């Protein structure tokens, strides 16, 4: 599946076609301070913000939506059932949290 096919699938879906992996999604929404309605709206109506996706397993996709310059919404969906889209989990990726991280190079010491 390519990006265009995935966007067409999302645009042709309705709110009735989306189901959630409960209670996992509700917990993740609380942790990330986002409502399910916003996730559904982003998934169905704002497909132009979809930057890329990764096929994790057959018919399981990680979708990345830009919310603004620093934040992304990561949504993991599966489309195993052809008439339904199941949202497995969500996560807000915030670049400012990772801004000050550094890679530490460990040199081998000789004794």
Would you write up a description of this structure?
This protein is an alpha+beta fold. The chain is built from three helices and five strands. Strands 1-5-4-3-2 form a five-stranded mixed beta sheet. The radius of gyration is 17 Å and the shape is globular. Helices cover 24% and strands 32% of the residues. The mean pLDDT is 83. The N and C termini lie far apart (54 Å). It has one domain (3-96): Nuclear Transport Factor 2, Chain: A. A hairpin with a 6-residue loop joins strand 4 and strand 5 (85-94). It has helices at residues 3-11, 24-31, 36-45; strands at residues 18-20, 50-57, 60-66, 71-78, 85-94.
Q: How many strands, what sense, and barrel or not for the largest sheet?
A: 5 strands, mixed
Figure out the total of helices: 3
For the largest beta sheet, what order do the strands appear in spatially?
1-5-4-3-2
Percentage of residues in strands: 25-35%
Low-pLDDT sequence parts: none
Mean pLDDT: 83
What is the CATH level 1 assignment?
Answer: Alpha Beta
Share of helical residues: 10-25%
The domain tally reads 1
Q: If classified by CATH, what would the architecture be? A: Roll
CATH third-level topology: Nuclear Transport Factor 2, Chain: A
Shape: globular
């Amino acid at each position: 599946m390519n990006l265009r096919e995935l966007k067409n699938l999302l645009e042709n879906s309705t709110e009735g076609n989306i189901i959630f992996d409960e209670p996992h999604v509700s917990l993740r929404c609380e942790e990330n301070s986002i409502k399910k309605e916003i996730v559904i709206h982003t998934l169905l109506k704002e497909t132009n913000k979809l930057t890329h996706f990764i096929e994790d397993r057959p018919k399981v996709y990680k979708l990345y939506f830009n919310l603004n310059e620093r934040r992304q919404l990561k949504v993991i969906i599966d489309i195993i059932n052809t008439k339904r889209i199941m949202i497995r989990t969500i996560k807000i990726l915030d670049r400012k949290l990772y801004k000050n991280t550094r890679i530490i190079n460990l040199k081998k010491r000789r004794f």
